[in-house]
Amino acid sequence: MQSAPIKRTYLALENWFNYSFGSWNPLYHLGTLTIFFFWIVLVTGIYLFIFFHGSLDGAYASVERITHEQWYAAGIMRSLHRYASDAAIGCILLHMFREFALDRHHGARWYSWFTGVPLLWMVVTLGITGYWLVWDQLAQYIAIGSAHLMDALPIFFGSMTGNFLEGALSDRFFILIEFLHLLGQPMLLVFALWLHVRRLSNVNIHPPRGLAIGSLAALLALSLAKPAVSHGPADLSTVPQILNLDWFYLNIYPLLDYWSAGQVWMLAFGVTFLLLVLPWVPPRKKGAAAVVDLSHCDGCKQCFDDCPFDAISVQARTDGAPHEHEVVVDPVLCASCGICVGSCHYSNPFRKAETELKTGIDMPQLPAEEMRARTDAAIAELGGEVGIVIFGCEHGFDVTLLNSEDTRGIKLLCSGMLPPSFIDYALRKGADGVMIAGCRHADCYFRFGNRWMEQRLEGARNPILRKRVDRGRIVIQGGAETDRRVVESALARFRQQLSENGGKRREGKIADA
Amino acid sequence: MQTRKRYHIQAVNYLLFMALVGYFSSSPAYRHLEENQAKVVLAFSHFGQHVEPCRRVTPEELAKLPPNMRRPTECTRKRSPVTVELMMDGERLLYKVADPPGLFDDGGVDIYLDAVIPAGEHRFTVRMNDSVRVKGYNYSHEQAVTVVPGQLLFIDFDTDSGFVFK
Ligand code: HEM
């Protein structure tokens, strides 16, 4: 479990945004917002490139023209270019914090975290070369600082700092920086980004339109209110005294005034190393992976479509059964969410009630048979006027805390693990209502559990909940571990509604079944 | 919740976002150098002299060598460490003894030393020893310089012109 204070802090922040943004909550879209900011950076960058002069003598003057003479177009583009880059760093840091606070970097999910860390380096160094190109005093400060840093690495001969001051900062070197910023680094970044999301399925790269428009408008307003400007022109015979640093990108340089370049590297490498090993600290046992049972699999591929982590693949049938396909689980990629069990139409508790419930794909730690046994037991224990069964998950609010005379909570691995037929089953076996309480809406720990479950209930995703099941006896209210009040009040409303709609049907139902 | 209230809070969030991005993109300002300070940098690359003097090769010896290897002098590879010192107003400001790099101690050394100094008139003495066969400093240069605030006083060296203040 993640340390509670960090998670609670994050959840409080999320609540604050949920209040006004709802499902546009920017914290739910940090990765896609970052990509959106990159798009702004790309478009504005192309515009700036038209007017930029890529030489030591010409760069500064060209940026001044961009900023002042053409303030209404290129100037705004420059400001947007800067502020969107800054916003991207802000989003990346929050994105990291979120994945960490919500514990989404362990087990099979180490990969996304691990490949995220170099992205941070790439974006920061991309910003650094960007500031270099202005060739003002800030650029000079960065150039000298970077040279100090390079000199501390055992990879270059000679003193880069000394060479720079002696006049080795030639146009050729400047063009190298320009090449890196305009082409080399962005291409590397795109490639690394592709790697970053490779092990996820259904990756969305666009934030909700409203959020994108809102953020763009905010950055535009900021660009008008506080246009980005340069420092004085670079002059290597002076030392800049006061610098208006962009702290999103250039925070490492002031350290050089207090520490040696070697110590600054140690800090940077140390933090990077800690981040890289975080998925394995503390070491944990990986949950058991899903297991396919071909004798109950007809190769419908629904689990393949639903798996959030691309752990399921489809291949030609190997067991001679008269189906075209079968599915295969890669245990290395499986995050043990159990969503595939909810996808399988064989996970049907009505089937062969007298024998063990077998399904096409199952979780060894909580097989469908056990789910059915727990459901049966919960219903048997229900007393009171209206009996409610709550299906919850291990990562949202702990639904067993809601157990009372007329309420029983059952924890699944994920709410998306619940086959819709189980709802029908619970209602027919005697529950008056079924509540599904997974993670917060739009924030499933396993990415898509909430969404797939809702779509199955709406009839938009297989396996669907049968039409004849009374929707008035089902409620969905997710919540995080800090959301007791929200889940409880939804439960109270549901109980009220059920008793108004004839909660005393229980007896009849039990007789029915 | 009323939609209007939601939108108002959204607007506040966007303003907060603008304020954070706008502020940290250039603030707080960082003071790299105090108002009345300047910086002196002593930086150059240099090969220390050979530890043993080079020997003239006799014509007979030369004749024995294959033509592509005939060089008039023969030197051992090992070079001397380079010692530099910068005094300002009679006090030592910078000092370094740099050993030659390389497997055979035969590489050139790269010196980079810097210090922050108060602006104003100063007397600098810069000295170097690059030979174990010489006691004391074999290069020396003295100069008075009026350093203005924010100036980067660069001291370079090459064997032909010695130390040069730039
Ligand atoms: C250029 C910067 C980055 C961008 C644009 C980016 C974007 C994304 C996107 C689009 C996703 C997929 C989200 C989804 O569809 O569920 C994702 C997932 C993820 N990112 Fe990043 N990311 C960046 C940097 C980072 C960094 C620095 C870290 C942490 C060190 C990180 C950690 C993760 C993790 C752990 C996931 C997987 C979440 C899961 O398994 O559900 N990312 N990122």
Task: Give the secondary structure arrangement, pairings included.
The complex is a heterodimer of chains A (513) and B (166).
Chain A: H1 4-21, H2 30-51, H3 59-69, H4 71-101, H5 110-133, H6 137-151, H7 160-168, H8 171-196, H9 209-225, E1 242-243, H10 261-277, E2 291-292, H11 302-306, E3 312-316, E4 325-329, H12 339-343, E5 361-362, H13 368-381, E6 388-393, E7 407-412, H14 421-429, E8 433-437, H15 449-458, E9 474-476, H16 484-500, H17 506-512
Parallel strand pairs in A: 6-7, 6-8, 8-9
Antiparallel strand pairs in A: 2-5, 3-4
Helix pairs in contact in A: 2-4, 3-4, 4-5, 4-9, 5-6, 5-8, 5-10, 6-7, 6-10
Chain B: H1 3-24, E1 30-31, E2 37-46, E3 55-56, H2 59-64, E4 73-74, E5 82-88, E6 91-98, E7 109-118, E8 120-129, E9 139-147, E10 152-158, E11 162-165
Parallel strand pairs in B: 2-10
Antiparallel strand pairs in B: 2-7, 3-4, 5-6, 5-8, 8-9, 10-11
- The helix/strand class of chain B is alpha+beta
**What is the residue-averaged pLDDT of chain B?**
92
Distance between the termini of chain A: 40 Å
Number of separate strands of chain A: 9
| Percent strand of chain B | 35-45%
Report the C-alpha radius of gyration of chain A, rounded. 28 Å
Q: Pairing-aware structural class of the strands and helices of chain A?
A: alpha/beta
The ordered string of helix (H) and strand (E) elements of chain A is: HHHHHHHHHEHEHEEHEHEEHEHEHH
Extended strand count of chain B: 11
The largest contact between protein chains, plus residue counts on each side, is: A-B, 44 and 42 residues
Q: What proportion of the residues of chain B is helical, as a percent range?
A: 10-25%
Net shape of chain A? elongated
